């Protein structure tokens, strides 16, 4: 019975020793091992073997990138205005041993270092520059923090300012100023738009007037050309008609009496015009009438000669 108890104790001690000997470290973590109170080594992810009852795991360090948001910090600018600034730090532990032994609490150290650095950086700026220089503030903070935390085994990857809140009275004044600036820009843009619209309207009217005048000029030229061509054609027609009549008259060999008769037939046509209120009989009219009278009187004189004399 005693031997069985002893065997069980031995097995339990061996099992416990085996449990303390084998250490499985998860990915992205590191175990700090101390031997007899002094740093011995850092266990990397995977299976590790330590000496039981001699080696002891002091702490576990997370090697992943961490994001820490610090509460708003009051900062005084160079123009004596208090602003509240929220910051976010992205950092990563690169040396587990330094992060464990170089500083008691590296997270508190990063926070306090951020506050002091932020006050130094923003304290040299006025409010307007602080509100518009976030990238500059982020860059300076990251450089100072990365240099100061390097000996702690920490690398600061990014520093972001979540918000910069000036006092309520300053915010109200800034909103009024921004509203006034927007109204001013809107008025300027409206005036520029009206000016441009007036210019375009005048330019359009000028071009329309030019095109209209050009069209009227071209139309007048075309009408003049058409009238000239029509007159030329009428003149040519009249010339052809006169030539034809003249040729027909000469070919027919008319006598003076026929010409006088045609002249008398033409007189009513001359008198038909509305504008012919007064017209003058030419001097040749008497001779024409004499010839025409002779034409009608001659047959009457010669008519008795045709028959026998009266008794």
UniProtKB/TrEMBL annotation:
**SUPFAM superfamilies on file:** Band 7/SPFH domain (SSF117892)
- Please tell me where this protein is predominantly located: membrane
Pfam families, alphabetized: Band_7
Annotated ranges, domain Band:
20-178
Localisation: Membrane
Q: How does it sit in the membrane?
A: Single-pass membrane protein
Concerning SMART domains, the annotation shows: PHB
| GO cellular component annotations of the record | plasma membrane; side of membrane
Which key words are in the record?
Membrane, Transmembrane, Transmembrane helix
- UniProt similarity note: Belongs to the band 7/mec-2 family.
Annotated protein name in UniProt? SPFH/Band 7/PHB domain protein
Upper classification of the organism: Bacteria, Bacillati, Actinomycetota, Actinomycetes, Streptosporangiales
